[in-house]
Amino acid sequence: MYKVVIGLEVHCELKTKAKVFSMGPNIYSEEPNINVATIDLGFPGVLPVVNKTAVEYAIKTALALNCTIPNELVFDRKNYFYPDLPKGYQITQFNKTIGSNGVLIINVDGEDKKVFIKEMHLEEDTASLDHYGSYSLLNYNRAGVPLIEVVTEPCLHNSEEVVTFLEALRSIFLYCDVSEAKSDKGQMRCDVNISLMKDDSKELGTKVELKNINSFNNVKDAIEYEIKRQAEMLDNGEKVIMETRRFDDNKRKTYTMREKVEAVDYKYFMEPNIPIIKIKKDWVNEIKTTIPMLQYERIQLYMNEYGLSRYDATILVKDKEVADFFEKAITYDDDYKKITNWINGVVLGHINKYGLRINEIFITPKMLVELIKLVEDKTISIKQGKEVFYQALQEKKEPIDIVKSANMSQIQDEDYLLKIALEVINENKEVVTEYLNGRDNVLDYLVGQVMKKTKGKANPAKASEILKTEIKKLN
Amino acid sequence: MEYLDLTIKEMHELLKNGEITPLTLSKAALERAYKYQSDYNSFVTILDDALNAAKDLDDNVDNPLYGIPYALKDNISTKGILTTASSNILKDYVPVFDATVVTKLKEKKAVLIGKTVLDELAMGGSGTTGHTGIVCNPWDKERMIGGSSAGSAAAVALGIVPFALGSDTGDSIRKPAAYGGLVGFKPTYGRISRYGLFPFASSLDHFGCLTRWVEDAAYVIDALKGKDEKDMTSLPDDNKIYSELLDGKVKGKKLFYIKEIIDIDTKDINQEVQATLDNFNFVLEQCKELGIEVEAVSIEKKLLNALHPTYITISCAEVTSNNANLTGIIFGNRQPGDTVDEVMFNTRTDGFSELIKRRFVIGSYVLQKENQEKLFLNACRVRRIIVDKITELFKKYDGLILPATGGIAPKFDQKFDKLLDRYLLLENHLVIGNFGGFPSITIPSGVVSNMPIGVNITGPILKDSEVLNMAYALESQLGYKGIMAKGGNKNV
Amino acid sequence: MIKKEDLKEYASKLMFDMKDEEYEVLQKEFIYILKNMEAINKIEGIEQITPMTHPFIMTDVFFNDDKVKDCLKTEEVLQNAKEMENNEIKVPKVVG
Asked: Given this model, what pLDDT does residue A338 score?
């Protein structure tokens, strides 16, 4: 019935040491007003100074989003009055932004979709304003923190696309190492512009702005609530009001923040205190070389070159460090699938459980590959392999050494296995009978018993074979 | 012996040989400051603590400004010292940081005597619009000394201090200099860091100084210039010591004046303007004696008539934005309100004078989306046309020479600050120096009706030393060096 | 002639109000400025010119390195504020 049109404005805090237009500290602190530079307070006579690293991070991100980079760095003033804006204007970019006409490819339901980036600009954050009913308190720690704002074209159509895009965008920030992009710390915030139009209509519907949503989950719920709300209004013949709404965390609904009676005129003009700076092609190219292979390209590579499934590849690239770990591991062995399984299974399972980073654990890609080899050539069982993994982490000993010293070689000796198998058959006559009556799966139980007796050292495949043979003989 | 009547160099020699100490000078400066305060109102704040500062200086007389008393316009940030910009909205503002110029002068061991009165927020040209009172011209109490650096000019003209800093956005150093019989120098844009200067129009604002001799101005600028990492518009060091480059050798220099400004029909002008133009002829004759060639150059009247409205448009636009920080929340004369909007509204309604508010509305209007192209941006375009024209002429000439004003300092009852008055090209050309960031200096050139008048030389960007040298040579030739309103060696 | 109500609206957006007489003075000032700007707009070829926002092009612009060099003490941040609570600046409630 209705086509949903969504455009996003995403703000992300950069992880520079100093703020973007002052030399104050860019650190998060619980204590208020301890990370404030003279300039951040907008005292009469202060002047902005541009942080080179902030600009580099911005250019890097713009390149990663396939944007066009302008030949001049220009900043503009956005003029308005609000208590969290000390100067009475924000230094931002309006006319010539640091990136424009970019694209980010996301994958939704197995299909690639291009999300068009209208523009990307560098600006400063405002102070934090906390409301307490009859009064509010101002903390200037955040004033002047560098922000990148990414504005998409209105080319998204549902909450799944939006969340997928946000996750992909977040990965860009992390892959480029320009931000920690943690939503819960307010480092990544999203404004959603959403309108509904009739399927057969050529005109866009009235746009509603959902402001400052700070978690992807909230974005999803906010969009879905809003779609329902607007659809209901339109069904009832009501007009959707152009306004700004906020999302209530607890009630999981959107509420009116303020009505947009007319668009505010920010009287943008060029910042006179910052000279126009030429952006040299050499500099941009230098920055480009610092961009690692990004998620999308890696997924294509893993699928096409290494034969991984999209599913597995997606898990590997979620975290750049994990993808790098994988890529190092496969330099030692080309059993891509097995390596993937171990990483996505045992390794990620462990680090996710304990909130670790893959680079923090003792096991290196080389050690992992060696461990996998030991399992594959049947020196040890998978079960043993997993035990060795945990032991290696704990004792900080290499897997090979653990296996050698513990004399953990899997028992392959057929005579010994035969002896144990016969013991098990004898002790479990009822189960054997069940098996002979057709219940094949009870064999696992019997294998388990062999494993128990051999303290897990038996080769389960071999044990299974021997058991089957001997049980057949009984028949 | 009135030590304060001497040149900086002379004071420096006496300090070096121990005949006087910094305390001698500071004491004398404070005495004079108090003596003239009620009649002329140079100061917002007189710093009695200057005596301690002078006493505490070490014995190392290591630079020309050591121990020299000076004054600062009260729109310059001084840590721990009240800085009001002569505006009610800042009447209790005490900065937590020093402007870079203040830091430098501290390093040079000069002694700050006081903060001087200005037109409110530097937005005026009469010295009468500030909340800290009007400044009277030391040469005639019934006349103004112009502005906005009124108090600084008066302090130097009275011989309270040998130098005072001011700021110049349209003519705010160079015009009061003319009305006060002083040297007023504004170097190239960016030569002196603007960090700590309360901004009027950031792309037009310049720091500069008022002195009684050109050489003294050179000493001051030597001490202040240099790249500052806190000001992105500051110029790299040129590694020149201007005071050492003053040799008076200007033979062969070529200057031009603008025909349309000087060749006015006599029936259009009054006696005062005529006298000013006669004085200008005198100046041109003296230039000739020095071997300086002066030619008349024609510039389209349309362009010249655009100077003033362009200046108003650009400066009002920038100043509106630059003063949006004055809301009373973090600093300033906060007024009460039930909501934070009311606090900001009441603070600003109460804190600014009506003149300032009118300028803000104009500034805001020209920046509005529907007006910006035709008003603000077109003014910026005309600015470029004018600057390009002058820059082109500077390829052929070493400078532009013109009378600094159209007459002597006006009397107070001549209404001055409504935009419509006194529109003569003679009154409004100094802004050329701000549009292009050109170094520009006014020196006293004569006396009309017992009041001093001045001549102005503006040169190509970065040629600060050359402009100073031309002024230095002319100063000796003209015969009004070091004149003072009270005592001293005045020729009036 | 710009209407007084419009000027009042512009002033209120700048967070202040003026005395009634002042709006009348301002109206006259606007007449002067707009008349002169009209003359400027008639200068031939003006649309082709790039607006000048800085007095000249600086060839040697420096950036700042990513270092912390300016950090005020909390007392300095609050020194000039009139109302504070828990080391933050206090303002009455924000509406809208």
From this structure: 94
Scanning C18-47 for CB atoms below 8 A from A yields none
User: In this predicted model, what pLDDT tens digit does every residue of A212-249 receive, in sequence order?
Assistant: 888 999 999 999 999 999 999 999 999 888 888 999 98
Instruction: Identify the structural domains of chain B with CATH numbers, from first to last.
Output: 3-253+401-478 (3.90.1300.10), 301-391 (no CATH)
Task: Give residue C12's domain range.
Answer: 4-45
Name the minimum distance, in Å, from the CA of C27 to any CA of chain B. 9
Q: Looking at beta carbons, which residues of chain B come within 8 Å of C53?
A: 203, 380
Q: Would you list the DSSP string of A388-439?
A: HHHHHHHHT--HHHHHHHTT---B--HHHHHHHHHHHHHHTHHHHHHHHTT-
CA distance A50 to A274: 8
| Residue C9 touches chain B, beta carbons under 8 Å | no
Inter-chain contact A131–C94, Cβ cutoff 8 Å?
yes
Chain C within 8 Å of B416 (Cβ-Cβ)?
Answer: no
pLDDT at B263: 87
CATH of A414-474, one of 3.30.565.10, 1.10.490.10, 1.10.10.410, 1.10.4030.10: 1.10.10.410
> What is the Rg, in whole angstroms, of the alpha carbon atoms belonging to chain A?
30
Q: Is residue C26 part of a domain?
A: yes
Among B126, B148, B315, B445, the one annotated catalytic: B148
Q: Is B148 a catalytic residue?
A: yes
- Residue pLDDT, tens place only, B16-64: 999 999 999 999 999 999 999 999 999 999 999 999 999 999 999 999 9
**What is the average pLDDT score of chain B?**
94
Question: Does residue B445 have an active-site annotation?
Answer: no
Number of domains in chain C: 1
pLDDT score recorded for residue B488: 54
Active site residue B172: yes
Q: What is the pLDDT of residues A276-296, one digit of tens each?
A: 999 999 999 999 999 999 999
Work out the percent of chain C whose per-residue pLDDT is above 90. 73
Tell me whether C1 touches chain B (CB under 8 Å). Answer: no
Contact B66, B109 (CB under 8 A): yes
A460: Cβ–Cβ under 8 A, 6 or more apart, which residues?
A381, A447, A450, A451
Interface touch A267/B364, C-beta < 8 Å: yes
Residue C27 lies in a domain: yes
**Chain B interface includes C71 (CB < 8 A):** no
Distance from CA of C55 to the nearest CA of A (A): 10
Burial class for B79, CB neighbours closer than 10 Å (0-12, 13-18, 19+): middle
Q: What is the per-residue pLDDT for A411?
A: 63
Q: What tokens does A425 get? A: 């058959």
